[in-house]
Write a structure and sequence with these properties.
The structure holds 2 protein chains of 2 kinds. Chain A is an alpha/beta fold. Chain A has 2 domains: about 220 residues, Antithrombin, subunit I, domain 2 (Antithrombin, Chain I, domain 2); about 140 residues, Alpha-1-antitrypsin, domain 1 (Roll), CATH 2.30.39. Helix content of chain A is about 30%, strand content about 30%. In chain A, the strands form 2 sheets. In chain A, strands 2, 6, 7, 8, 9, 10, 14, 15 and 16 form a 9-stranded mixed sheet that branches. In chain B, strands 1-9-8-12-13-14-11-10 form an 8-stranded antiparallel sheet. A 6-stranded antiparallel β-barrel of chain B has the order 2-3-4-7-6-5. Classes of the chains: A alpha/beta, B mainly beta. Chains A and B meet through strand 7, strand 10 and strand 13 of A and strand 3 and strand 13 of B.
């Protein structure tokens, strides 16, 4: 006997490889040129900027003393994918929660932009070291809509597993093995428990360990103090880099701003607030300021000290997305009839997002070997990232925020 | 009049005799300068986080004007000049602190291209400093003067005493003989990075300027008299004391007219 209410588990550990193209059968999509696609991608970047900041502020609201780390691109694409299988309020809430203005951007353009973005991030020749994967875990008696399944496989590169959720330990193991394998062992036990009546689960993961264009010398790394707060100090390995870097002081944010380029068209923006100005920074930061930071390069002589760290994020997306207006998909009124053929309503009973990032000294060998330039001899400002700071990692072409993080205690994983 | 002439002569003689180096034991590879050996040397400092930080050296050329490097003042910070300074972290009793009122960088200076040259700026002070044994004007060379190769020169400053090391607390000096333009611009040295509007000195792999020395003077002896022939500008990104990568200075004698015009019109 099929349960009267089907429960869906959504596990978001990261980035969707591909957003399905528009599913409507009666609309024939014509190919657009690369040139036309680029503005659409920027549309998405603009929207994801607002989305990323809204999400960040919600996380700060939940706890302002914890590390924060998440992937706006990953969360947005997963929900955009779900929107293709949802209808009514469930559908509308998702797109508006992701902060798309549906009077300015057509839904077809939204999905096209996501597709283009994901193609950019997952180019085979990219030097970016992003690891992403997608798994659909379906109860062995549930039948998925063929169209949705096809799109998930073709555009989402999803792997589909048939599992017996009645055997919850076995089902849990299948999901956890998938994520652990895809993240090279970095994310274990992605799912700790499954609700008794779960029949549908989606797992995504994202792992990033980029190479700096301008690497740190490991010989310069030494132990130093990091001031978590006024009364707490921890010891961390502090990397050091001196040279012509993109650094400036932003009086609007009351922060020093550092840009570091990764190989593969990604950049990290580090924001180091002056003492007592973290809350000001968090309240003042907006996508216009970030765009200016990315576009206006200001190389100058500087010496930076930044912790070597591994940071991960693990969030309950129901708690996180509800304040953004995405509520229907999580309750009994959810309409996910585009995903399952069953008459019984499907519900997202649990959604978890996980992401992992390593920041260390590693750079591209060639870049290190060929560095030669004249260096002015003013005493460089010394920026010590020895108290809580923010960072945002962008895909350069689209300015899409791949990751947003706040380091409060670098010794916490 | 005669009394003045005698005084000036005494100052010059004293300057010459006191500057004969005893040993150069450790700027990079330099040694602590004797107090008031280089009375035209200043410390340029910027305000940040409620305190002042040394960033560059400079040369007092008028009682209310300082010559330094343009890259020293690229950032819009609040700057001050300290004259009569010896120990940055102690009260020597001889210091005078004065705010920078106006900054005039060379119009052709491009902060993204230090090897193009023009790395020179003049700072007008908010008030004139008092000249004494510890505070003097730097002597500048005649316009167009070109140093002979291997001329005896000293770089002075509070710059790092080791690549990526700490600032010196007391004023340092290092003997850096000049390197002619033809040698310095050869491919085994700096190549085309060095221009004729620059002066090179050092390059033995031991002694050099380093971060914190920028803007400060290169004192060279010509015809028995020291003059400030260089404004400290850049070193190699591979490190401060790299063999065949002499410390590079803006050549002061190329900018005499420009400086005179700036001072006259400001």
């Amino acid at each position: 006997m099929t349960p009267s209410i089907s429960w869906g588990l959504l596990l978001l550990a990261g980035l969707c490889c591909m957003v399905p193209s528009f599913l409507a059968e009666d609309v024939q999509e014509t190919d657009t040129s690369q040139k036309d696609q680029s503005p659409a991608s920027h549309e998405i970047a603009t929207n994801l900027g607002d989305f990323a900041i809204s999400l960040y502020r919600e996380l700060v609201h939940q706890s302002n003393t914890s590390n924060i780390f998440f992937s706006p691109v990953s969360i947005a694409t997963a929900f955009a994918m779900l929107s293709l299988g949802s209808k009514g309020d469930t559908h509308t809430q998702i797109l508006e929660g992701l902060q798309f203005n549906l009077t300015q951007t057509s839904e077809a353009d939204i999905h096209k932009s996501f597709q283009h973005l994901l193609q950019t991030l997952n180019r085979p020749d990219s030097e970016l070291q992003l690891s992403t994967g997608n798994g659909l875990f379906v109860n062995n008696d549930l039948k998925l809509v063929e169209k949705f399944l096809e799109e998930a496989k073709n555009h989402y590169q999803a792997e589909v597993f048939s599992v017996n959720f009645a055997e919850s330990e076995e089902a849990k193991k299948v999901i956890n093995d998938f994520v652990e394998k895809g993240t090279q062992g970095k994310i274990v036990e992605a799912v700790k428990e499954l609700d008794q009546d779960t029949v549908f689960a989606l797992a995504n993961y994202i792992l990033f360990k980029g190479k700096w264009k301008k690497p740190f010398d490991p010989e310069n790394t030494e132990e130093a103090e990091f001031h978590v707060d006024k009364s707490t100090t921890v010891k961390v390995p502090m990397m050091m880099l001196s040279g012509m870097l993109d650094v400036h002081h932003c009086s609007i944010l009351s922060s020093w701003v550092l840009l570091m380029d990764y190989a593969g068209n990604a950049s990290a923006v580090f924001l180091l607030p002056e003492d007592g100005k973290m809350q000001h920074l968090e309240q003042t930061l907006n996508k216009e300021l970030i765009s200016k930071i990315l576009l206006n390069r200001r190389r100058r002589l500087v010496q930076i000290h930044i912790p070597r760290l591994s940071i991960s994020g693990d969030y309950n997306l129901k708690t996180l997305m509800s304040p953004l207006g995405i509520t229907r998909i999580f309750n009994n009124g959810a309409d996910l009839s585009g995903i399952t053929e069953e008459n019984a309503p499907l519900k997202l009973s649990k959604a978890v997002h996980k992401a992992v990032l390593t920041i260390d000294e590693t750079g591209t060998e060639a870049a290190a070997a060929t560095v030669f330039e004249a260096v002015p001899m003013s005493m460089p400002p010394i920026l010590r990232f020895d108290h809580p700071f923010l960072f945002i990692i962008f895909e350069e072409h689209t300015q899409s925020p791949i990751f947003v993080g706040k380091v409060v205690d670098p010794t916490h994983k | 009049m005669l009394r003045f002439l005698v005084f000036a002569s005494l100052v010059l003689c004293g300057h010459s005799t006191e500057d004969v180096p005893e040993t150069d034991a450790r700027v990079v590879g330099g040694a602590e300068a004797r107090r008031n050996s280089w009375p035209s040397q200043i410390s340029l400092q910027y305000q940040y986080g409620g305190s002042w930080h040394h960033t560059c050296g400079g040369t007092l050329i008028r009682s209310n004007w300082v010559m330094t490097a343009a890259h020293c003042v690229d950032s819009p910070m609040t700057y001050r000049v300290v004259v009569g300074e010896h120990n940055l972290s102690q009260n020597d009793g001889t210091e005078q602190y004065v705010n920078v009122q106006k900054i005039v960088s060379h119009p052709y200076w491009n902060k993204n291209n230090v090897v193009a040259g023009y790395d020179i700026a003049l700072l007008r002070l908010a008030k004139s400093v008092t000249l004494n044994n510890y505070v003097q004007l730097g002597v500048l060379p005649r316009e167009g003067t070109i140093l002979a190769n291997n001329s005896p020169c000293y770089i002075t400053g509070w710059g790092r005493t080791r690549t990526n090391g700490e600032l010196a607390q007391t004023l340092q000096q290092a003997y850096l003989p000049s390197v002619s333009y033809s040698i310095c611009s050869s491919s085994s040295y700096w190549g085309s990075s060095v221009k004729n509007t620059m002066v090179c000195a050092g390059g033995d792999g031991v002694r050099s300027g380093c971060q914190g020395d920028s803007g400060g003077p290169l004192h060279c002896m010509v015809n028995g008299q020291y003059a400030v022939h260089g404004v400290t500008s850049f070193v190699s990104s591979m490190g401060c004391n790299v063999a065949r990568k002499p410390t590079v200075f803006t050549r002061v004698s190329a900018y005499i007219s420009w400086m005179n015009n700036v001072i006259a019109s400001n």
